[in-house]
Design goal:
By secondary structure, this protein is of the alpha+beta class. The chain is built from two helices and four strands.
């Protein structure tokens, strides 16, 4: 009986820690991995890799934001759901 309780306790701890990790990773932040300019669309873009999912997405910003953000920098995108 003690072994069953111990196993159930370990499973509960494992499941609760997974939940906490996923809650922490509902982020819209990541690392700038590439940048550029699309003059046809007047877009100063940054490609950002999400710190939780590893997904990459390209976002357009104003020239000042683009100029001050460099590959390797941490960056959070406001008004954007996690990708």
């Amino acid at each position: 009986m003690k072994k069953v309780i111990l196993v159930l306790g370990m499973i509960t701890i494992a499941l609760s820690s997974c939940k906490k990790e996923s809650e922490l990773c509902s982020s819209n932040c990541g690392t700038v991995v590439n940048d550029g300019i699309n003059s046809a669309e007047n877009c100063y873009w940054l490609e950002i890799q999400n710190e939780c999912t590893g997904n990459k997405k390209v976002f357009c910003f104003d020239q000042n934001t683009w100029f001050n953000s460099h590959v390797g920098d941490s960056f959070c995108v406001t008004n954007e759901p996690s990708w």
